[in-house]
Amino acid sequence: MTRIAIVINDLIRFGGAERYLIEQFRFFHKLGFSIEIFTGEINLDLFKFGEIPSFIHHIDSKSKRLQGRINDFASEIGFWNPDLVIAHAQPANLIALRVNERFGTPYVLNIHGTFINFENDLNRYSSRFRVKALNYIRKNPGIQEFISLSTPKLCFKKRLQINYWARRDYLSFTKSTLIFVLTSEEQRLVREFYGCDSIVHHPGYFRNETSVSSEPDSDKKDFTLLFIGRLDKRKRLENIIKAVSLIPPASRPGLKIFLIGSGSERESLESLILRNDLKEIIKLTGNLTDTELTRLMKSCSGILYPAWVTYGLVVIEALALGLPVITAEDTGIVKELNQSGLHKNILTTDGSPESICSRILELKRSPFRNIIPESVLDRFSYDNAFKCMVHHLEKSFLREKQEDKINILMLPKFINPYQDIIITGLEDAGCIVGTNFNLLNRKNLKRVRDRIDILHLHWLDPFYLNVNSGIEAYIASRKFLVKIRSLKKSGVKIVWTVHNLINHNLKYLKIDRQVHRRLLRLADAVIVMSEYSRMRLQEEYGFEPSNLNIIPLPSYTGFYPNSISREEARKQLNLSENDKVILLFGLLKRYKGLLYLLDNGIIDRFPDIKWLFIGRVEPDNFKAELLKQFSGKNNVFPNLNYIPDNEVQYYFKASDISILPYTDFLTSSNLILSLSFGHPVICTDHGFFKEILSGTRNFFFKPDSPETLVTAITSAFNSDLSLLGRENLKLAESFGHALITAKTKEVYLKVLGER
């Protein structure tokens, strides 16, 4: 039985982190793990959940210094002798690091919020972190109301302390076995600030198994809104009060707002309520029991939560009850909900009093409840979140090497359908695939050597290019190659799938080329996705690896939902039946050729065609440039945001043709995606496109001759697009998942046979 220690600094309130922790305890306890909770301060009245109090270790440290408290925690945890430590928020990450150093116990981090603690300003971080943090604040002006951009002068001793704890904080991330975060934005920030990979999992609403009716004394004529959470500046509670003060007296009858929770802002909020003469409308309730909360939520009209937070569990709780939620654009959960198609109950604001006031009045005029099916909410259930944790824990260190299977570490793992298809296929074929990026840390190399047969590399950028200078990139690249040589020397086989000749951001190209050249010689097998890629690789690096394999991209048929009709899709996107529609879909970067269409007047030449430009834009300043160029073009319909998997079908089913004006690339997943949806294609006469589409009736143009694109578009709309689409779908199906998986496994077996 595995022993797990859950560590959190205190349990004195019942907020999102505490709700998560209780559900995590229940889940692992139910699976049969021996599990204990270690904490400092505790309010036991708030945590009387069955037998849970008997599993809580209260560590009553007498030390006034952080270092002393951390050592007291570490001693108590080490005495219990767990196999794994799960650390929740700060400073639990520092405690877990200390346990690891003293007792060798592996640990994982559960990050619940803004991992750089802006509440304490930037004083506790070294200059390395402060520069990044200040840049982050400047890019997000909405959070400047909570954070001071100025840095006070500090004495030498204080700066030493700051730098010490900053280093410890950094080490706690880099030495952790796994890091779990709540949103994709937080995943991006962990990589930016710490250079570590992390795993997104979506915990859900708190399940109260007690049947609770609505508030018996509630007046059905009342319009009641609830705020639930800690009373601090990031929740914009002052703006809620100011918003209510802006509501005209004629619209106030029946309006009730309860601010539920405790925190440092209570006194100032009480004062603000009195100054605005709102004590009959706004009530501060303090902390409530879970039963009281559930009763109020069932009887209220909606939730007020315009908070700047990384997640916002209360929003999920409200959605589970069908409640509308007035929130903010920078509430972390909002972006995740929009990506999941759960935005119908969300009324977003910019966080200002005026915007909040407008939404309150809008909801008061037209109240609603939309019950969301369990099947839709399931993505955010605690069961799914913790199953995700167990899955990754097993891949990292709970699962021993199995001699009768091929044990693979595949890095880096991105949110990418290509990798998902390959990994699923390999696991179905009896392989064990791990994807924990942090296992390639120097400390973990021994475990990697002992537990894997193959290291399968994909994009190399994260290993040495996510740094701030050429010197850092050079050092990181040397360390990366040393690790690869060490693994190869110990018998681990190295396989590299080459996606790009050089990185798309063109960072530190000399270093990038040097690493590519050396890895081509070190790898036991190299995989490219076309004959064109093989030729370009040889041209770029002057030689062809001896063990080079061509395995095409897999079809995406069956990966994305594809159930709606053309008519339904067009209705959803407000397109008419007779509209001519061209689609450019995917991650929009400069090299993808969108500016080619604009700069050469192609869009203006075809005013009768609707152009859909769909997908997230990188970098951010390119998005602003595109929107400026789109201004005034009535036939351009952009959606420059992440598109959830379940919405991809709307854009492909609603459009007639995909256009791929790419010029500088090695392979193209978007070509395969277009074929998988049965789309005719207009593309450049690039070698990769010509190879994959050889023998088909798709349409090519020369990038240096815009007139050839005009001809291609005209010819396409004079063709039988339906027939061409069916032919393209058949072509996509020839790149079946089973075939691509089998070819990949053949490569593994071949290199393993050379031991």
Protein described:
It is a single chain. The protein is α/β, with parallel strands linked by helices and 755 residues long. The protein has four domains: 198 residues, 3-Layer(aba) Sandwich (Rossmann fold); 158 residues, 3-Layer(aba) Sandwich (Rossmann fold), CATH 3.40.50.2000; 151 residues, Glycogen Phosphorylase B (Rossmann fold); 170 residues, Glycogen Phosphorylase B (Rossmann fold), CATH 3.40.50. It is 43% helix and 15% strand. It contains 30 helices and 25 strands. The strands form four sheets. It has a seven-stranded parallel beta sheet with strand order 3-2-1-4-5-6-7, with helices on both faces. It has a six-stranded parallel beta sheet with strand order 10-9-8-11-12-13, with helices on both faces. A six-stranded parallel beta sheet has the order 15-14-16-17-18-19, with helices on both faces. Helix 15 crosses helix 30 and helix 26 packs across helix 29. The longest helix is centred in the middle third of the chain and has 20 residues. About 3% of the residues have low confidence.
SSE inventory with pairings:
Blueprint: E1 3-8, H1 16-30, E2 34-39, E3 56-58, H2 66-80, E4 84-88, H3 92-103, E5 107-110, H4 127-139, H5 156-174, E6 178-181, H6 184-194, E7 199-200, E8 223-228, H7 237-246, E9 255-260, H8 266-275, E10 282-286, H9 290-299, E11 302-305, H10 313-320, E12 325-328, H11 332-339, E13 346-349, H12 353-365, H13 374-377, H14 382-398, E14 407-411, H15 417-428, E15 432-434, H16 445-451, E16 454-457, H17 461-464, H18 470-489, E17 493-497, H19 509-522, E18 525-528, H20 531-541, E19 548-550, H21 566-572, E20 580-585, H22 594-599, H23 602-605, E21 609-614, H24 620-630, E22 636-639, H25 645-654, E23 657-660, H26 669-676, E24 681-684, H27 687-692, E25 699-701, H28 706-717, H29 721-733, H30 737-752
Parallel strand pairs: 1-2, 1-4, 2-3, 4-5, 5-6, 6-7, 8-9, 8-11, 9-10, 11-12, 12-13, 14-15, 14-16, 16-17, 17-18, 18-19, 20-21, 20-23, 21-22, 23-24, 24-25
Helix pairs in contact: 2-3, 3-5, 7-12, 15-30, 18-19, 21-25, 26-29
